[in-house]
Amino acid sequence: MSAESLEIAKASxxxxxxxxxxxxxxxxxENLEKASALLARxxxxxxxxxxxxxxxYEAAGRTDxxxxxxxxxxxxxxxxxxxxxxxxLYILKAPKLVRPNEWMTEIPDLGTLPDNDLKIRxxxxxxxxxxxRKPAEPEFIDLSQVNTRDNRFIWVALTVIGLTISYLxxxxxxxxxx
Length: 178
Description:
single chain; mainly alpha; Serine Threonine Protein Phosphatase 5, Tetratricopeptide repeat; 6 helices
């Protein structure tokens, strides 16, 4: 393997990992497959790339490809790769649990609301709802309806604060430490 193809493989591997971690699984599969094709399958790096490829296959919905690759990687000469392949194969072949609908929370599609200003406009033309709105007039409150009776809370609070300050001043002049 030439140094140039090794660099291309490493770059594709890194690009594939970044794509996988950002949720772009199809792109991750493409880059990881490219890296895997350039590397020796029995090398440590080749096994590492193919382990990532297994997870990318699964995330992209290609479970059968992921299982087939794991079956092959179980016999990889690098022990860490074969151990990871066996663990992944166990997970991939595990029965899928069915979740009751009561456990699921449905997130409504807010894009269907008629007053949604954040809709994507296909034509790019401003619509009636995108026109600037007039600011709402302030709502005046009838003070005769508001309870303005003194509940004496402020006087109690001021008394407690005054007593606390007086006590602290008395302690500082009497020479007693707190």
